[in-house]
From TrEMBL, chains A, B:
Gene Ontology molecular-function annotations: metal ion binding
Pfam families: HMA
Domain HMA: 2-68
SUPFAM superfamilies per UniProt: HMA, heavy metal-associated domain (SSF55008)
CDD domains in alphabetical order: HMA (cd00371)
Protein name: Copper chaperone
InterPro entries on file: HMA_dom (IPR006121), HMA_dom_sf (IPR036163)
């Protein structure tokens, strides 16, 4: 299992962060995700044989959030 | 120009609704969109030659929201 930790802009409330968590956990190859609007931190555990950081970042951007780091 | 009006669950704050508006307005064939978390209403003006209600509903669901009507 691999993990990435990202800083994501655009989460304003628990609805925002909860939705991003669910979107990520519904994505192919993602094993678990946590998103916190208070800290802007998003952590994603993934199967490196099925997805990669670029695809995860793209999924976040496609959902209307911005990966800033 | 065609328009649809939908009821969408999952918008908790202005961050949620603002993001959904931007996601929709960035989608092919969408001319304008409004989203209000207070009322759960989403209105979308679109070019029927380039997209359709099914694609718009799918884009909303892919962003982690639920179209309920």
């Amino acid at each position: 299992m691999s993990s990435i930790e990202l800083t994501v802009d655009g989460m304003k409330c628990g609805g925002c962060s909860g939705r991003l968590k669910r979107v990520l956990e519904g994505s192919d190859g993602v094993l678990a995700a946590e998103a916190a609007h208070e800290t802007r931190r998003v952590t994603v555990d993934y199967d490196a044989g099925r997805t990669d950081p670029q695809a995860i970042r793209q999924r976040i951007e496609d959902s209307g959030f911005s990966v800033v780091a």
